[in-house]
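[recover] target loaded
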């Protein structure tokens, strides 16, 4: 199975895109600004969107996606997230004020958009050769990470999270773990902000990675613009033995 990074930055500008991964041809993980780089034909092929949480940098393109391709498709776009996250989207985005409620357009019986509750620990298979499982995450709003299992290897994405002891036993039990994409939003100088906004800084990342008991290729995501180089330098110092690499926009990861 193939994952293409459409966006992995903690902000925008200068070619940066916020979080979205295309998995296979029909599945998205999060719908940040990177989704806008797909062609209309590619956008129309998206059948399944798994959201980690409701923050704007992870959902920004969902309203535009469904409006752009809805009429070209013969089935709804299914959005999988916890009930808590779906409730936030219903109340604050698809509320007819910020955006029309595409769960009722063109009609409730055959809508362009469908919400599918997908809770922590739940697994689903959106396309052949891909099983998605929701993993624990701790953020300022309800959040999950995801395990993507091709049957051969698993790739784990933390989503936005801070220090979380519940996450690591689940990851350590994944026998076919190949890749871990983990966030580090801020540099060490911004530790107070990392704690307030429930993210990680390099020092916290090192504490977290010490809980990983399996070998894995480790990629860093969600670096905030303006402190990318410093944060990666600090990661190189604080977590050197894990050889973390910076995840890049456009990068392809096979698993
Ligand atoms: N006190 C705060 N709590 C949460 N987020 C904050 C705060 N101050 C600034 N932010 C920013 O708001 C952003 C919301 O999205 P993120 O969680 O990616 O990252 C967060 C921070 O960059």
């Amino acid at each position: 199975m193939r994952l293409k990074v459409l966006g992995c930055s903690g902000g925008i500008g200068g070619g940066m895109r916020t979080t979205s991964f295309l998995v296979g041809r029909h599945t998205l993980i999060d719908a940040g600004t990177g989704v806008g780089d797909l062609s209309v034909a590619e956008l129309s092929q998206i059948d399944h969107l798994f959201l980690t949480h409701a923050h704007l940098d992870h959902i920004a393109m969902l309203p535009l996606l469904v409006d752009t391709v809805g009429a070209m498709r013969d089935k709804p776009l299914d959005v999988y997230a916890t009930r808590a996250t779906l409730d936030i989207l219903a109340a604050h985005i698809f509320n007819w004020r910020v955006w029309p409620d595409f769960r009722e357009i063109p009609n409730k019986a055959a809508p362009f958009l469908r919400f599918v509750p997908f809770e922590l620990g739940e697994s689903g298979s959106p396309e052949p050769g891909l099983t998605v499982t929701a993993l624990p995450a701790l953020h300022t709003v309800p959040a999950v990470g995801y395990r993507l299992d091709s049957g051969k290897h698993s790739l784990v994405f933390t989503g936005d999270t801070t220090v979380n002891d519940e996450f690591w036993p689940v990851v350590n039990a994944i026998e076919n773990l190949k890749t871990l994409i983990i966030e580090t939003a801020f540099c060490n100088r911004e530790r107070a902000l990392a704690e307030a906004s429930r993210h990680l800084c390099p020092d916290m990342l090192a504490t977290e990675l010490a809980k990983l008991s399996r070998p894995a290729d480790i990629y860093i995501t969600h670096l905030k613009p303006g402190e990318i180089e410093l944060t990666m330098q600090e990661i190189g110092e604080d977590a050197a033995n894990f050889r973390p690499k910076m995840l890049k926009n456009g990068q392809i990861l096979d698993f």
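[recover] notes: The longest strand covers residues 130-136.
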